[in-house]
User: What shape does this take?
Amino acid sequence: MNDRIVFENVSKFYGEVLGVNRISFSIPPGITTLVGPNGSGKTTLMNLMTGLVQPSSGQISIQGIAPGEPDTFFRMVGYCTQFDSFPRGLTGYQFLFDSLMLHGVSEYDAFRLAGEAMERVRLSDAAGRKIAAYSKGMRQKIRLAQAIAHHPRVLVLDEPLNGLDPMARAESLALFEELGRQGMHLIISSHILDEVDRISDRVILITGGYLIAEGNIHQVRQEVRDKPMQVLVRCDKPELLASRMFSVNHCVEARLHGDGKGVFLRTADVDEFYRLLNDVAVEGLVKIEAVAPADDDANAIYNYLIGSDGGAS
Amino acid sequence: MAASANTLTNRLKQQPWGLWWLQARRLTRIEVRRNLFSWRATWIYFLAFVPTIILLIHAVFDRDGKLAMSEDTMVLAGIVQFYYIRLGIFFGCLGIFSRLIRGEMVERSLHYYLLSPVRREILLLAKFAAGSFSAILLFGSAMIADFALVYMPYGTVGHDFVFNGPGLSQLEAYLAIAVLACLGYGAVFLLLSMIFRNPMPAAMLVLGWEAINPVLPSILQRISVASYLRHLMPVSVPGDGIFALLTVETEPAPAWAAVLGLLLLIAVVLAYSCYRIRRLEIRYTTD
Amino acid sequence: MSVYRHDYRAYSGRVTPMWARVGVLVRYGLAEAWSSKITIGLGLAAMIPFIIFLIQIYLANNPATRLLVSRNNLRFLDVDAEYFLRALEAQCWFALPLMSWVAPRLITYDLADNALPILLSHPVSRFGYVLGKFLALFASLASVTVLPCLVLFVYQCDCAPPGWTMANLPIAFGIVAGTTVWITLLSMVGLAFSSWVKWRTLATGVIFAAVLVPAGVGGIFSAVLRTRWGMLLNLPVMMTQLWQRLLGVPEVVRTGRDWSLPSAAILAMLIAACLVCAAMLHARIRAREVVRG
Assistant: This one.
């Protein structure tokens, strides 16, 4: 069975305004982050994915099913939108219950699943209160609960961390991570890249309606060859290491860490860099404690590929 | 030919009719709850029952011995023809049916329905059913109450008129008119609310169209809800001046033809609405 | 940062007087109202009867036309109080759809976008806000009611023989008074219902209903209880009677029933309607945020 989210040459125009243009990708299960500045087409892409808007051209399918077949499509897809609005006059519990009833489940199951989803987003205490009386963070959570309540296989989340306090953000991220581990397909768009980056496997970069890059974060970073990669090396003699590294021409920048026990090195050839670092370690001149890429994340990729255009928000 | 008919039959049998029926019932229940049991619905109760309140005052406090049942029969016919069809049901259905889709767009909550595993046609028809049920329940019961309040004060004479005279058939005709008016206006306003971001100017044009319809050529008279309903009126009300426009029958037609014509109009409008909703996109703007 | 480096200074220049700020709201209100193609369409449609009446004045004062029209039909060319009543009624009823379209544009956007807290956080009072919107609506309606009717009157004064103007001056006063009452009422009704409905898409219909449904209810009241007082809910009937009296046109009794209402009762009802509208605005125009859900 096809387990991918597939966009084939998808374009969307709102009259003469470009939404997205000729987007093609195929996303395997796991957590995928959708990254781009405001107005870049992230929400359009998600709305296309879930059939809320229809493509001007191209084909879209999730696990082999098109959004035009709602009976089967929305059984496996949950979408937590950015729209901060709800059907009028409902309590949080009624909102989930009504939504589940439309899935065709029995009243008992709707009751059970609604309670379970409320529990997952830690809103059980507020289940009986009107949504109109919820705080912004609670409204964000109830939308998330509605998206996951029917146990979808694919979860599309548009800015799911907006309006959440740090504690709730951490809880949500833990929940996404757990769902991803369980084999769910998660597509997350977020501006809080530092946090999302920790849990995501893949990244899709989009700006001005065009796909800039797509794939595994490390692969995408390595593809950005015109931006030398930065590596943090924790060691006892950072100055010595820096001078040694500068003896080779692929190392273009060195900056001492604030605590004096490490150095940020920027290299144009990361493979050669690691080979040389091994030599240094074997020689025993410098005692190396840790090595970590310092700009091998979604945030850095965003800055390199999009931020330099001045489009980053 | 037979093979293709068999294929069609098989395809129809394979459809999840049970699930669709269940979803439609549940959607209808949700919508009826929102139409009838909220503070925002009080104005529809007002539209439906304000004649009832006036008739109640008449029945209880206004009995001065000068009762004239034939005059009251005309008054009731006037209430149905001038008030319910032209104002009460018109504006009631305008409010109920334009809220179903456009109202959800304005409140930015339509996407929740479109993200549920319900076919959009089922969604539309269930919403239409819920709107129709709410409107028919309110305006139908208001008409029954009006009818009872008109004839109850006449005691045995009124009883005779209702059960041994033309009374019951008149009530049936009024109820049929209410049902058809709710369905007809409902279908039209549901479609208008899907075509236009602001359906009100179009609805006001419909109001004007319905008023001037009797003076239009007969082909254009067929594109009107009120023109079909006029043929079903059991009592003809003499109109004067501008009111003659609302009562005059320029193209007499049998009742069955009027009912069939209106049902056909409703079916066409609903079919086109189903086509529109399949292409509906969520683009919330400030309306 | 050292205190001496704090170079921020609050604005200390001249400020416009309070009343002038209402003018800003009026200006923006008018711009918003007339930015819609439908508003322009309705405004142009309202000019159609005006042009017809204008042509009628020209023909009535043209000797050749008078000779061409047979003596029996000369009544058709009379420009008198009844003629101005017809013109006034036509223009005033064209103002209703215009008001029902414009009023929601002036108010509901602010409410739907939660802009009221922002607007009212400026040095503009709630009264100033409503007054600004009211004046914008009033001016828009005046442009299709009182102005065209006065232009007709002035044109007739110009074309008619000397002495006509002085003899018919009460008609001009009647036109000004009748249209002022009407568009004041319409403006109040439009703003009040727009502030309560909030959805622009529904507000237009609700305003129409607010004028037409009470008329129907009043009709039922009068028919069922056999009284003329139900007509106090019937705005078309009330206004027709008021205009007839202001222009000095004799009232015609139709359908065998006399629905004539005392002028004092009509005025009291219109004032009461305006007060209800003012109370609705008072309750609704507040700096508060509307949470959806």
Observations:
- Residues 17-59+68-278 of chain B form one domain.
